[in-house]
Amino acid sequence: MSAPPARAGCTSAARRADLRSDTVTPIPAETPAAGVGRRGWIAVLAVAAVVLAVAEVGRRLTQDGTVLHLAGGYVLRGRFDVVLTPRVLLPVAVGLAGVLWGPALAARLRWGVLLPGSAVAAAGWAVALALSSGWSRLPEPLSVRYEYPYDVPRVGDLGTFLATFVDSVPADAADPWTTHVAGHPPGALLAFVLLDRLGLGGLGWAAALCIAGGALAVPAVLVAVRAVGGEQPARRAAPFLVFAPVALWVATSADAFFAGVAAWGVALLATAAARAPGPASDLRAVAGGLLLGAALFLSFGLTALGLVALAVVGVHRERLGRGGVIRVLAVGAAGVLAVVVLFAVGGYWWVEGFAAAGDRVRSGPSYANRPLAFFLVANLAAAALALGPAAVAGLASLRRQPPALLPLAALAGIAVSDLTGLVRGETERIWLPFYVWVLVATAFLPARGRRGWLAASAALAVGIEVGVRTEW
Q: What is the 3-state secondary structure (H, E, C) of 363-419?
């Protein structure tokens, strides 16, 4: 009579013990933890050497008269200029708190609390870093004439806006769009226009939109990782997703907003594939497709993020079978297609817009003056700084487990973007929608050194904020 309650109690206790655990999945005997740790350090030292070499080459190119268009920098956009004030104590305190208590909280909080908590923590970390340069730092990046809010007053009737958008993309148009607007689909500017028409105009609200998007990407990635490989890898990666140096460009670049939209699209697809086929799964898949379709109209570069979307569904192929995988992808594709059709009916054809934006990018001096051979490597060096040492060490620690597919797919998307040659510099923000998936690799870090890697990532973020005058 008492056996069932006892079994229930044991199960409940085991579940509580599991939630309290913050150790990584046991490493196979043939791959000792010490070996994995050494690989991480070797990878970080090698990447650091490449970053320093790129900086030196960039410095020499600049001395020889090459214009890198990096605002005085050689890897990141922004000159090296140390500005140390008492305000830096804020991100130091927040980062220290994250290192001391972040891993334990990520391991023990209820899942329903961890998700919103991770978003709040990510927003707080990004804002704390920005505020080390003063309150004006939050809206300032969006105040320049190259950003989306500059063109918001130009938009009148939305139908006319979509139908004539491509006409103003060329640099020699009668009234060309500003740089960032012309280089993206109309959805990016449309997001800020709609925000303004909701009565939330001004740079403060625009900054809030960017920060919210970047912060909400964190729980989206956790949801996807849980659907792909279980809850424990998601919990292990959570502190690294929050305290990575990418937070420097969450406050406040529009790419952070793009990252949030795309991440939730992938997360919904992942949860659709993790469920048994049926109406509930189809609903999630179509919702994910709608968000991914919206992401395609925020940034052309997010096309390559489709590799991550394929990974989160394909990982379930043995359980779902070929037909189940095709069903999830087909329903998701229907959602993407619905967005494409909606914009096409409105007068904007994505393929035509992509060609026009490519011509605009190639016609500008920031493309023509930037040497391709240098930026093929410099782009990756900037990515390494944005991701931080923990991500690099995590990539060196990957094992043959389902969550490893996510950072690998994101890296493949980054490689595709890099090899197109269209992206030359500023990848610390441009690739932000990919970075949140690369950071999943931190779930594979050995337990012994995880807190140290987290501290190193937070310290690098503070160091960049103090030492580099970035635009974002």
A: HCHHHHCCCHHHHHHHHHHHHHHHHCHHHHHHHHCCCCCHHHHHHHHHHHHHHHHHH
Residue 395 located in a structural domain:
yes
Write the pLDDT tens digit of every residue in 343-372: 999 999 999 999 999 999 998 887 888 999
Residue 27 lies in a domain: no
Task: Indicate the burial class of 15 (C-beta count within 10 angstroms; 0-12, 13-18, 19 or more).
Answer: exposed
Residue ranges making up the domain that contains 423: 32-467
Convert the pLDDT of each residue in 163-179 to its tens digit.
999 999 999 999 999 99
DSSP letters spanning 180-207? HHHTS-HHHHHHHHHHHHTT--SHHHHH
Q: How many domains does the chain have?
A: 1
Ordered DSSP codes for 79-108: -B-----GGGHHHHHHHHHHHHHHHHHHHH
d(CA 30, CA 188): 49
Nearest residue to 460 via CA among 378, 384, 388:
388
Does some domain include residue 87? yes
Q: Which amino acid is at 151?
A: D
Residue 273 in any domain: the answer is yes
